[in-house]
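COURSE: Structural Biology Practicum
ASSIGNMENT: Worksheet 4, Part C
STUDENT ID: 0417
INSTRUCTIONS: Below are two proteins. For each, the amino acid sequence is given first, followed by its structure token string. Answer the questions at the end about the second protein only.

PROTEIN I
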Amino acid sequence: MIFSIADKLEKVRARIQKATISAKRAPDSVQLLAVSKTRAAAELFELIEAGQTQFGENYLNEALDKQRALASLCLVQTKKEQLASVIWHFIGPIQSNKTRAIAENFAWVQSIDRAKIVQRLDAQRPVHLGPLNCCIQVNIDEEETKSGVNLAEVDLLAAEIEATPNLSLRGLMCIPDADQDEASLRASFKRMADKFAALRQRYPSVDTLSMGMSGDIEIAIECGSTMVRVGTALFGERTTETMQKQ
């Protein structure tokens, strides 16, 4: 049986709901972020029609092209209203020369990992758009190939964000080591959850713990995630063709 993207969305939503109930958490305490890197605008359009509103993009130029393509697809007024409700998250590594476009075209940035990026996003965020929602990316397993700060550096970077007028500190994001066993993964998620709890005590705006992907939704929710980032379970495995679009 071939499932449509809308069908897959329902399956992912059901997984989130089941995991949330199992963890004895509030029904609406976990949000779904559709990770749409390398996927076509038409695929996102199908998800938008099915009611998905939050999308995460890793590559700036691709994301901007996709936003323009979706605007062309949503010419009917009702579709324009649906597109207007979409919330764009930038979740990839941030280059200094890309901060202006990110500040101007996204509502969230989940991959902040250094003070220079904080300063540039704050200076370049258009005031009329309101504060840019920010998560600090934590390299929870301290992998050399991944971006992010270690847990000891979170407080300093959080203070940098909190001191800006045009950014809003919302929480933490992590991408754990994909090769570790389940016990190690739980330990990584637990360290994130503990730091998140400490951060919430200091900053009232903090409400987002972005962790968990297609393969570990249930464990992440059990450990306290408030937002899971799902790509493969919605769109399927990336093919050679889609990977070449990067």
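PROTEIN II
(use this one for the questions)
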Amino acid sequence: MTLFVPGRYASADVAGRLGSDLPFSLGREWVDNPRDGSFGEAFSLGTCSADEIRAIDDAGGALMLQLPVELHTYRDEIGSLAEALRAVGALGLRIEQSKLGFAVDAWVKRVRSGDAMSLYRLAVITLRGEDSTRTIGLHAFSLPDVEIEATGDEASEWLDVMALFQIDEDPVFVSGNTFAPDAETPRRMIEWWPDTNYPTDHPCHNPFGLFRPGSARRSRRGARNRSCG
């Protein structure tokens, strides 16, 4: 997982003082603010106020931090890192795997929350097409994203429940399994596909691929069924 962290730092040397107590190595890179509006634009997905965006856009620079761990597995350690970043001047944090960012106080609050939904909303965005909907960002949890031929509330229920089930329960899904978000909804057979939506070197490319629930169907004998509870 990669974090883009603009802030009012005293100098680029702040990166060298972070992460010494973490149980994993922390990759660090300094990014100067080019003063072209791109810092503010990076946080313009509707999660920050206008004042917060202006402050981020005025940051002197940003840390680009590479964390070789999953967000949910190391949430406590990542929460401590976020608090340390806030203490030295961080203004916001954005997860590059989905391009979703929040002002620093909101980010710390969400990562410190005790439920998987807060982490999911912190890291994952939903893209809606004419007849399909998909998640982007579940590779922050080392999980495949989910794409379904549905829109609106139906798609949101499927994507949210299936993603949260993966985060909470860590099931072993393979092509041919079936799943439904609740007992009343007909199950759909799951197929695994590689993620071809982004080039392999793009941060939003999910190397774990995509799960695609197919058409609604009755469970067939011999299929491995998964439920969310």
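ANSWER KEY EXCERPT:
Q1: The mean pLDDT is 89.
Q2: Helices lie at 38-41, 50-57, 75-87, 104-112, 116-123, 152-169.
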